[in-house]
Every structure is written in C-alpha cells, then in structure tokens.
C-alpha cells in the first residue's frame, strides 16, 4: 500500500498555539493575589470546557463563545466568594475581551513557518469558538494561517465527528492526509476516530485532569512544545 503524504495541518488554537492564561490573569482585578488569580483562571478554563461538553452531550448548536465564557465565569465566581466584590459588570466585560487578545507560545510562529516553507503544507486553525474570536487572536498573536475554521463556521463543536468531516470536505483532503495538532486529548480522540493523524502538544495550562502517561501512548506523537513539530510531521 502506498504511504499517504501529509498535505495539511489543522491546529487547535487556544492553549495549543496561544498562552490564554497570561492574558486572563493580567486582566483579573489587581486586588486578587497572583497565585489565586492563576487558580481562578484555570478553574474558569475548566468550567468553559464543561459547558461545551454539556452542549455537545445535549446535541445543541454552538453558541457565541463570549456567552459561554460569561456563564462559566459566574459559576466559577461562586467558588471564589471572597473575590466576588471585585467583579462588577465592567470588570466582567473586560475579562471576556481578554480572551480576544492572546500571545502565541514562543516557538509556535517558527513551527508554523517551517511547516509552510520547508514542508510546503497548508495550515489551518480548527478550533471551537467564533470567527470573530479567531480573527482577533490571529491579529494579537501575529500567527498566519491559510484559513480559520471555527465551531461557529462549521456548525459543530469538536469533538463531534461533523466538525472534522466538514473541515476535510472544505479543504478537499482525505483524513489520512491531514494532521491535527492540539493540547487537548478529547479533541485528538475525536480527530483520530475520523482517521486524521494526531500530534499532542503538552501545555501546562490545559488538560489538567488527564493522565499524561496514558496520553503519551494514544496518538501518533507527543511533544512538550512545537520546536520539532516539522520533523515529527515529516516523519509521519
């Protein structure tokens, strides 16, 4: 059988390519101690994923990520009652906007550039969220992609099979010629079930409830960062 050739790479965005944690922590009220601000941010992120998972299980359509984040924040603030007085409506709005301005992890830009110039691959964002969010994040991060696929645009949340199948249809490539790069095991499991190749990138900000020793055995590759991403994908 002829070995398939990789033609394109789908990237999850927040967490995988972008350091969301720094943006959110910096936007939190200065009265909150740094260590507690980090814990609050991590809990907010975890609650956001729980909200998405609930919508997936109920087979609900994707909603505006700003709405999901706002609802998640209210839940999380209930777990940090001592800090609730610091969160008026204006502060909450400021925090939601902080998710729209994130910097890339240091090695990501070079990794994407290497995929494009050295391997000649097409690169796409394939992430839950809205198109507006992704446009804002490409601007703030300076990262460049051939196209941005959001759950809003695709009409389905990852890890629903529809989210991967629809994106593959749009780029007109079979699953075996596309790699998904993500810092989220649930996402890669969904992609793997659809036949995509899978590369896990470990980020300390995400997948806090996953067993990393188990995750290391699940996918085509496991990386601590994207420094060697081009080499790994070339080997696939």
UniProtKB/TrEMBL annotation:
Protein keywords: Hydrolase
Gene3D superfamilies the record matches: HAD superfamily/HAD-like, Putative phosphatase, domain 2
Keyword Hydrolase carried by entry: yes
GO MF annotation list: hydrolase activity, acting on acid halide bonds, in C-halide compounds; phosphatase activity
Pfam family, one: Hydrolase
Similarity annotation: Belongs to the HAD-like hydrolase superfamily. S-2-haloalkanoic acid dehalogenase family.
Protein name: Haloacid dehalogenase, type II
Native species: Penicillium salamii
């Amino acid at each position: 059988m002829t070995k398939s050739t990789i033609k394109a790479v789908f990237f999850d965005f927040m967490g995988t390519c972008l350091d969301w944690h720094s943006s959110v922590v910096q936007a939190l009220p200065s009265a909150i101690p740094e260590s507690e601000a980090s814990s609050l941010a991590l809990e907010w992120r975890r609650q956001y994923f729980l909200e998405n998972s609930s919508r997936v299980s109920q087979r609900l359509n994707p909603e505006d990520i700003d709405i999901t984040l706002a609802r998640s924040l209210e839940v999380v603030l209930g777990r940090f009652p001592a800090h609730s007085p610091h969160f008026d409506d204006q502060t909450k709005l400021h925090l939601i906007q902080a998710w729209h301005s994130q910097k890339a992890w240091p090695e990501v830009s070079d990794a994407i550039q290497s995929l494009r110039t050295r391997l000649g691959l097409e690169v796409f964002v394939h992430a839950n969220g809205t198109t507006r969010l992704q446009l804002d994040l490409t601007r703030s991060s300076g990262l460049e992609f051939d196209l941005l696929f959001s759950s809003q645009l695709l009409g389905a949340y990852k890890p629903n099979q529809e989210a991967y199948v629809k994106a593959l249809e749009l780029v007109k490539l079979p699953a075996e010629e596309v790699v998904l790069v993500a810092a989220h095991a649930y996402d890669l499991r969904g992609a793997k079930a659809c036949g995509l190749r899978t590369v896990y990138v470990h980020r300390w900000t995400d997948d806090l409830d996953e067993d990393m020793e188990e995750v290391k055995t699940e996918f085509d590759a496991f990386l601590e960062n994207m420094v060697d991403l081009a080499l790994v994908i070339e080997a696939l």
